[in-house]
Amino acid sequence: MSQLEFEKPILELEAKIAELRNVSSDSAVNIADEIKRMQDKSSKLLQQAYARLNPAQKVQVARHQNRPHFKDYINALITDFTPLAGDRNFADDHALIGGLGRFQGRPCVILGQEKGHDTESRIYHNFGMARPEGYRKAQRLMAMASQFQLPVLTFIDTAGAYPGMGAEERGQSEAIAKSIESCLRTDVPIISVVIGEGGSGGAVAIAVADKIYMLEHSIYSVISPEGCASILWRSGDYAQEAASALKLTAQDLYELKLIDAIIAEPLGGAHRHHEETMASVGRQLQKGLKELTPWDGAELIKARRQKFLAFGRESLYSSF
């Protein structure tokens, strides 16, 4: 497991516990009591650390390489998943994966960003940063969902849309805008879950949904803290201040009424407890689908548009 700075004392303690467990069982020294004492201390330190995470530390946890990724959620929650490739225009994008599958027996369209879990897969998936063809693929699948009246489930985990020259030449901003428009026009339920990073338009493009959920230690913002710091302070050294100012945590966004619910993570974060975290996400998705079923397409579209048009109005009027 890669180390987070604030977790170092805990990880050192866990390493000592692992060493003690490897001591031969016929050792003359009874180490069971010592292991129990150290485990209790580790749990206490973990609880204390995660009870007072600041926004910059939340960013670190959200980016942790061992957090469950989109493919992990597919394997855990979706059966009969069939990926559908290509945008029918230029190419297939490997950062944004989509297809058909069953969630608890219900046919659905599933979309999500995949970052990869090692060097080779990260390069293959472009670190979860989609190119225009990825968002055009999303548009195609949303149209298919509408045609066959299938709910759409989206999993958000991206630092943002890919900013390379080729992406810009192929119309990155237009592709994102059209993807947002597709979300607004789709007459079936759309549920989005931010499972790691929700970065800028790259996230919003598939997150204009009827229900938006965030994992407890995920983040969702218009720009990365480093990008914000480089613009406002001309230095990445102010990323911690930027993280606080951006109000990017799940708790901030729930208070601002920009998301519908926070999905609790097990103690120590999703990177420590994959199965438990994914089960919690599954329960929240089930609850959301139940609330939206049965549906009236026209009413869904109307409510979704009103929901997003209302963002910011309350805080704007309260300032006068």
Overview of the structural elements:
The protein has 2 domains: 5-52; 60-318, 2-enoyl-CoA Hydratase, Chain A, domain 1. The model has no long low-confidence stretch (mean pLDDT 90). With 320 residues, it is an alpha/beta fold. The protein is built from 15 helices and 8 strands.
Helix and strand arrangement:
Layout: H1 8-21, H2 32-51, H3 55-62, H4 70-77, E1 78-83, E2 96-103, E3 106-113, H5 119-124, H6 132-148, E4 152-158, H7 165-169, H8 172-185, E5 190-199, H9 200-204, E6 211-215, E7 219-221, H10 225-232, H11 239-246, H12 250-255, E8 261-263, H13 274-292, H14 297-309, H15 313-318
Parallel strand pairs: 3-4, 4-5, 5-6, 5-7, 6-8
Antiparallel strand pairs: 1-2, 2-3
**Cα-to-Cα separation, first versus last residue:** 49 Å
Helix content: 40-55%
CATH superfamily of the largest domain: 2-enoyl-CoA Hydratase, Chain A, domain 1
Name of the level-1 CATH class of the largest domain: Alpha Beta
Tell me, rounded to a whole number, the average pLDDT: 90
Low-confidence stretches: none
The number of distinct structural domains comes to 2
CATH topology of the largest domain: 2-enoyl-CoA Hydratase, Chain A, domain 1
User: Major sheet, described briefly?
Assistant: 8 strands, mixed
The portion of residues forming beta strands comes to 15-25%
Count of helical regions:
15
